[in-house]
Amino acid sequence: MYSYNRITECKPKSIERRGTIYRNEGQNRMKDRSKQLQARKKAIQEDILRYGGDILNSSAMQRAFTQKHHTLSTVGAHSMRVATRSLAICHALKKLHIQTDIPSVVTGSLCHDLGILGRDEKYRSSRECSRQHPLDSVEIANALTGGVTDKTADIISRHMWPVGKAKPPNSLEAAIVSAADKIATVEDFVKEYEEKRPGLRGVVREIRVNKKEGATWNRKKK
To answer: How far is residue 108's CA from residue 115's CA, in Å, rounded to a whole number?
Structure first.
């Protein structure tokens, strides 16, 4: 039978062992999560190269990386982000046993904005560019691939929804690319905002430094 002293002597060791077990489990989960993210990243890269390699090597895409888009980005960089975000959604849906047409997603996302190339020469206004470039992008995609499927054409021509009078997506893949396009666009504008103004992290860091140094922040009374 354990004495009181014996129990109190064992208790810290028991707690320490449990702490070690929980810590190891947390580290293992982090390692597993890191491996999953790396595997997904590799799968996305392989999908882009497998189904979009010819598009990436085309002169149109090379030109896209020199065409400014959303102030600080380019058409090429933006299209790559859209492709990456789209495929990330597709791989997430796959875990839910929801299958998607990966080749159509890759082709549609990489080509969705190629109609913007030469924007200043062929469009009279931003409104005309917004309305017309999806249709021009379909023509360029047809030229690059020898003809895209109807689903891919719809992905490209409807990606602007819900902006303006764009038609809504009529397939899961079109909805995915349209959503990824908005995500990538927000990322472009956030980058622009942070270039022009201090980011939130910078502001928080400045407050912490001033607080540490004993500075006072005076709030004006209304």
So the answer is: 12
Report the distance separating Cα 97 and Cα 182, nearest Å. Answer: 25
Residues 112-166: tens digit of each pLDDT: 999 999 998 999 998 899 899 999 999 999 999 999 999 999 999 999 998 878 8
- Model-level pTM? 0.75
Count of CA atoms in the C-beta half-sphere (13 A) of 24: 6
The region that residue 70 occupies, defined by phi over 0 for left and psi between -120 and 50 for alpha, beta otherwise, is: left
CATH class, 9-194 region: mainly alpha
Q: Report the 10 Å Cβ neighbour count for 56.
A: 17
* Domain boundaries, given as residue ranges, for the chain: 9-194
C-alpha 28/C-alpha 106 separation (Å) is 33
The continuous run of DSSP H or E covering 169 comes out as none
DSSP of 110-145, one letter per residue? Answer: HHTTGGGTTHHHH-SSHHHHHHHHHHHHHHHHHHHH
Mean pLDDT across the chain, nearest whole number? 83
pLDDT, residue 205, reads: 53
* CB neighbours of residue 84 within 10 Å: 17
Which conformational region is residue 202 in: left (phi greater than 0), alpha (psi within -120 to 50 degrees), or beta? Answer: alpha
